[in-house]
Amino acid sequence: MNLKAKVLLLAILPLLIAVGLLTYLGLHHARNLADQVLAVYEFNLVEAKKQALKEQMDIAHSAINIILDDESLSDAEQQAAVKHLLTQMRFGEDGYFFAYTQEGVNLVHPTIPEFVGQDLFQFQDTTGNLLIQALLEAANSGGGYHRYIWERPPLMQQEDKLGYADLIQPWNWMFGTGLYLDSINTEVEKVKTSFDTNIRNSFVAVMGVLIITVLLIIMLGLAINMHEHRLADGRLQELVQKFMRLQVNERRKFSRELHDGINQQLVSLKFRIELALKKLENEDGPHPSVAELNIAGKVLNDTIQEVRQISHNLRPILLDDLGLKPALRALKESFSERTGIEVILSYGLDDIEISDDVEITIYRLTQECLTNIEKHADANRVSITLRYHADEIHFEVADNGKGFNTRAATRQGIGMVNMRERVEVMGGTFSVESQLGNGSHIMAVFPGRQRRR
């Protein structure tokens, strides 16, 4: 093997190995990440269906309770009125309600009227699922969900369906409704197809870059000198760094969307538990479920706090969409509405270009300051000032509260330490002034940027 061939081989083989390894790792990671995203996406879609079912059941319960509370009707008249109500109630394109006795006798079925009066206790769907028994079990356990196969009108095709069943007191009837899940399967398949296309396109692009690069190396041959080798190494390193940054950004975006969705669902679940507790407390005598619901509420509160702590370091969506000024205004209005404390915002950075890092730091400082004021200051007035002076961004928060011992706060308070570290990481300075009885004054100074032209 001559010198040219050796140099060419030494130039091509490392590139082939590096790009091949990076391509394999990238595709493997992209596939795993896509599978995780699809699983979470499908879970969230199903949870949304469950929430929609629960809301429709709540509406039906409210309408049924109106009939049950009408003392002018006899028991038979109330039963007839409830049956008529469930027969007439519809939602969406194919949403309806059904009702059964505890023995599995159908009382209401708007789409298949011939079922009314039949004993369907042993009825099975196409998978052998004893769905009436399963729905009765869910209803008798306090209300619950069940997934099964059912005919979808008007074509009466067999479709995957999610049902929810509960009881009608005082007759111990099981009634419920359901939503078809074909739309979820369609949406998941669309997203999966999109992921597969993106992964395939990425692979083609990488292979194209690889082929072009190999051809260039072959054409250049011995013309590549040591300086060009260093340039090639630099470009490869830049490509790797760019690829890794892209991965980190995508993972961060996915994490933020995931946690925001989970947090909203947890809060909604918390309200449902609290509503259930209030209803149970209004009944005569202590209900055995109250203690369990209280424990569930405590666990849910802990979970919400953990999710919020995880998402605490993520960039606020309002800051991304509208910028620092609207984000601070929204933070101020939310704080004033919640606490009744007057907040005056003076924003003097309209013509200043602020980096993303400084923006999020200012936003987090404002959050921390307002949280401390709400918890400890006993203030009724807060001022937030941002101004630009001598190529520096000045941030100040002052309140008229009871003040605090700055040395003790610095030693014991994690919040103050975190604020100071945030500012110093950005190359700025942080200071606190406070005296007992005279409020507090927090200041931060960041290196400025050139004004926008």
Secondary structure: elements and pairs:
Elements: H1 3-68, H2 75-88, E1 90-91, E2 95-100, E3 106-108, H3 131-140, E4 144-152, E5 157-168, E6 173-180, H4 182-220, H5 226-281, H6 289-311, H7 317-322, H8 324-339, E7 342-347, H9 356-377, E8 381-389, E9 392-399, H10 406-412, H11 414-425, E10 429-434, E11 440-447
Parallel strand pairs: 7-8
Antiparallel strand pairs: 1-2, 2-3, 2-6, 4-5, 5-6, 8-9, 9-11, 10-11
Question: What features would you describe in this structure?
Answer:
- By secondary structure, the chain is an alpha+beta fold.
- It folds into 3 domains: 1-224, PAS domain (Beta-Lactamase, 2-Layer Sandwich), CATH 3.30.450; 228-314; 316-447, Heat Shock Protein 90 (2-Layer Sandwich), CATH 3.30.565.10.
- It has helices spanning 3-68, 75-88, 131-140, 182-220, 226-281, 289-311, 317-322, 324-339, 356-377, 406-412, 414-425, and strands spanning 90-91, 95-100, 106-108, 144-152, 157-168, 173-180, 342-347, 381-389, 392-399, 429-434, 440-447.
- The strands form 2 sheets. Strands 1, 2, 3, 4, 5 and 6 form a 6-stranded antiparallel β-sheet that branches.
- The two termini are 62 Å apart.
- The mean pLDDT is 80.
- It comes from Saccharospirillum mangrovi.
* Average residue pLDDT: 80
What is the N-to-C succession of helices and strands? Answer: HHEEEHEEEHHHHHEHEEHHEE
CATH architecture of the largest domain: 2-Layer Sandwich
Radius of gyration equals 32 Å
Low-confidence stretches: none
Fourth-tier CATH superfamily name of the largest domain: PAS domain
What is the distance, rounded to the nearest whole angstrom, between the alpha carbons of the first and last residues?
Answer: 62 Å
CATH topology of the largest domain, by name, is Beta-Lactamase
Into how many domains do the coordinates divide? 3
> What is the β-strand count?
11
- Strand % is 15-25%
The CATH class of the largest domain is Alpha Beta
Keywords: Cell membrane, Kinase, Membrane, Transferase, Transmembrane, Transmembrane helix, Two-component regulatory system
Domain Histidine kinase: 257-450
Organism: Saccharospirillum mangrovi
Membrane topology: Multi-pass membrane protein
